[in-house]
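Forum: Protein Structure Q&A
Topic: Joint prediction for protein chains with partners

I've read a bunch of threads here and the consensus seems to be that you should model interacting components together rather than docking separate models afterwards. I'd like to see that in practice. Below is the full input, 211 residues plus whatever partners are listed. Could one of the regulars post the assembled result?
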Amino acid sequence: MGVTKEDVEAAVAAALSPTHLVVTDTSGGCGASYEIEVVSDKFEGKRLLERHRMVNTALAPLMAEIHAVSIKALTPAQAQPKPQPEPAAAAADKPQA
Amino acid sequence: AAAEGGGVAAGMKDTLDKVVSAHKVVLFMKGTKDFPQCGFSHTVVQILRSLDVPFETLDVLANDALRQGLKDYSSWPTFPQLYIDGEFFGGCDITLEAYKSGELQETLEKAMCS
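Posted by a regular:
Agreed with the consensus. Here's the joint model:
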């Protein structure tokens, strides 16, 4: 087998020093295919196209053997779960007079 | 064949310049509009259809030189590749995310009016 999930992880980790990285093998029979979720402060201030280019560049040596990659590139701030809005439940729980 | 890693061959670059500026929206994909050969290409076709914009598609599976030339031209390693107003917009993930955020609609509107 050509490229493995570990190869992809190593290449992305080396290039982007991510704070969070999940690589999923999504090959559905048509060749090596990966889903990459990466959080890195190197994405700060970069547009989506640039962020994806950074990941693509990291993977360039492997791309010849990869059929497809799906990339999710977030900054640490974006990766934080959004603060929950005040639960409407409190109001809803109040019995109607 | 073009030299490896030497960027885009001159003839290919001219041709691609013409193709991407000849139409407002051009999608280089695997398969055709009516018969996409890959889920990622299918997704982008569906998005463009839902937005009701006219778009041209070119099948990179039918032309190996085009397929290789485009990768160098866009510095983008995979397909589909979406071009709007002569400029590379992105692949499937970027297009999908931009569609969800409304940025794609905005870019397309701007292109249609330009």
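Chain B touches chain A at residues 38, 40, 75-78, 88-94, 97-98 (CB under 8 Å).
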